């Protein structure tokens, strides 16, 4: 039977439950934090129409999309962009483990969502030491109602989470549940002697947690995990259907490459380092639907002015490239890939991040001695320091 006990059983069997969070998982009923209509696997699911299935996914280790297109009805043919969710419980536990929360800590949860994670924190720490902030007033209002129904009352406010909430500071722990391309310095200021955990990255690669410890006005640490979170709504780049980004296809410049687009898409270590320089374009691998195992990798600029495609054919060692626009996006991807190779194909865990008042810097192997210097040019991927340009 689907129940909070079933969710605890699933997470225990997967080895995801931390002893210090077991009671929160067992005591906080996820059902109270999930709306009657959600999306699972890109399909809507109504509690009224399929109550048993709804309960099964609610008490499963699954992410549940709770809002589309910022809650606006853009019509049946509009691109459906997920904009709020109840995160996968095992991923929530991974974040909390990285956050290293202890009794007595004062915690900010930036990106309040449904309030489920706030309830876990309030159950363990007490509502008085837990804060949440979200930019969407509808989400904030519903989160407060959800929390009240479960018996919790943390401080949840509506505002720009990237500016933080100084009225509740200082915090011992800062957790973000949305992806940022750079760590706001306000978070560092408001967590002066604590830890920040946030999904981090630009458009090309955003599948990393930045785990940073703060001391003397500087946040520093390394990267972990492979999370997939929604982007910050502040300066969020547009997304849409492929055809929304394509134009002037007859004017594309053709060339070839020896870098397999399929292999590249599967090489997360390479994509992390490429993404340090290519922060304003994203990739999409489209499989052929004829059983040929062929595919096309698209690289699409956030501003929709430039695009590139690389056609993959099994058994080939050269691949056709087409590019259009003021930028040659595939050339940028391949240049980043070659620089990563020249460094000896380092794993992401050799990289780290330093955040100061002047900006952020990504480095390789060891943090630079001069922490006060701001971001430099796009990364050369050579030597022992890698910098990210904002």
From TrEMBL:
UniProt GO cellular component terms: cytoplasm
GO MF term set: protein-L-isoaspartate (D-aspartate) O-methyltransferase activity
InterPro entries recorded: PCMT (IPR000682), SAM-dependent_MTases_sf (IPR029063)
Cellular compartments annotated: Cytoplasm
GO BP annotations listed: methylation
Major site of localization recorded for this protein: cytoplasm
Domain of life: Bacteria
Keywords, sorted A to Z: Cytoplasm, Methyltransferase, S-adenosyl-L-methionine, Transferase
Entry EC no(s): 2.1.1.77
Major enzyme class: transferase
SUPFAM superfamilies noted in UniProt: S-adenosyl-L-methionine-dependent methyltransferases
Positions of region (Disordered): 364-390
Family, per entry: Belongs to the methyltransferase superfamily. L-isoaspartyl/D-aspartyl protein methyltransferase family.
Stated name of the protein: Protein-L-isoaspartate O-methyltransferase
Protein source organism: Streptomyces luteoverticillatus (Streptoverticillium luteoverticillatus)
Lineage, highest ranks first: Bacteria, Bacillati, Actinomycetota, Actinomycetes, Kitasatosporales
